[in-house]
Specification:
Distance between the termini: 34 Å
Strand content: 5-15%
Shape: elongated
Strand order of the largest sheet: 3-6-5-4
Structural class: alpha+beta
Number of helices: 6
Radius of gyration: 20 Å
Helix content: 40-55%
Amino acid sequence: GIDWDSLDGIILHNHGVFTFDNDAKASYDKMIEAVTEAKAYLEIYSDIPVDTETPRQAHDLEALQKLLSAAKGYEVTLRVNDSHLSHYFSTQEDESLYTKGVLTPEHIIRTKRLPAVFDRDYAKAMEDYMEAYRAYFERHADGEIMLNPAPNWAVLKNYGIVAIGKDDKEARIIEDIAMHTMNAIFL
């Protein structure tokens, strides 16, 4: 069993940091200490600037969901991720980072080869993405049947990323793969 009295806190993967004590102020102080230690670690071992924060661009998620649903042919579920990593990824001027592809061939089944990039003109970005997907498929097809050319995840410029699924379960899986991909690019 776990000796909970010997622990100051726990870190739950993809859920955050939790600190605890019998006193609220002591628990709060432990949180500040844990975050300070994590920030110091990231400043040494991460290429992602911890203190750099560009303003977040507003995105019309309702309009985007309607556009993606129409392209997919069914109502999609969006999982928006505006974590520090996702936001940093979305602010990159060097958009070749978005075209590095997936970590493993198996990921292509869930995420497709590349994310879409949505800035201001969602319809144009969608059209361009789908046209590029079709062209890529036609160049490499050898009897396969093309999947729906709409994206499965996208970069929301200067905001974060969005995973697109038929339901929340599928969107979570796509989001997880996208986060691993971004981690591999930067860390």
